[in-house]
């Protein structure tokens, strides 16, 4: 019987639940204002962001995801959330890292905004996207 690590299971579960985005939105640490990376995919369960550095598993961050809504001109939308890093792997481009995160104390009021981001910025769901090996 093949045993899979928790990381392998988390990645497989994540892959089937989130939609990859065509446009990478900025992910910013709300405490420092520092750019952490760029959003690669998102769902109500969590997100993956790409960064120049990998982040430690278990670390938590208060973040803003900054997005310009196509339906509103000159308006930035901020999705504010607390995330916890669950896994990280090198991206296919080895200068980048993929960091898989779960939302912590998730506010259900964010679901419509996440769905709107997915609708406006995601690839066709039938197109399979790979960012890690």
Keywords:
2 helices, six-stranded antiparallel β-barrel, alpha+beta, 133 residues, Thrombin, subunit H
CA-based shape? globular
Helix segment tally: 2
What name does CATH use for the topology? Thrombin, subunit H
Order of strands in the sheet with most strands? 1-2-3-6-5-4
DSSP strand count: 6
Poorly predicted runs of 5 or more residues: 1-16
Helix/strand structural class: alpha+beta
Taking the sheet with the most strands, its summary is:
6 strands, antiparallel, barrel
* N-to-C span: 23 Å
What is the ordering of alpha helices and beta strands? Answer: HEEEEEEH
Question: What is the CATH class name?
Answer: Mainly Beta
As a percent range, the share of helical residues equals 10-25%
């Amino acid at each position: 019987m093949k045993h899979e690590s928790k990381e392998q299971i988390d990645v497989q579960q994540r892959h089937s639940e989130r939609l990859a985005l065509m446009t990478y939105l900025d992910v910013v640490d709300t405490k420092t204002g520092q750019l952490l990376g760029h959003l690669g995919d998102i769902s109500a369960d969590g997100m993956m962001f790409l960064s120049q550095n990998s982040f430690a598993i278990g670390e938590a961050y208060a973040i803003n995801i900054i997005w310009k809504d196509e339906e509103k001109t000159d308006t930035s939308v901020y999705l504010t959330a607390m995330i916890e890093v669950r896994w990280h792997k090198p991206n296919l481009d080895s200068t980048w890292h993929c960091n898989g995160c779960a939302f912590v104390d998730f506010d259900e009021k964010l679901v419509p905004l996440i769905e709107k981001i997915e609708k406006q910025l995601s690839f066709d769901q039938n197109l399979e996207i790979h960012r890690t090996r």
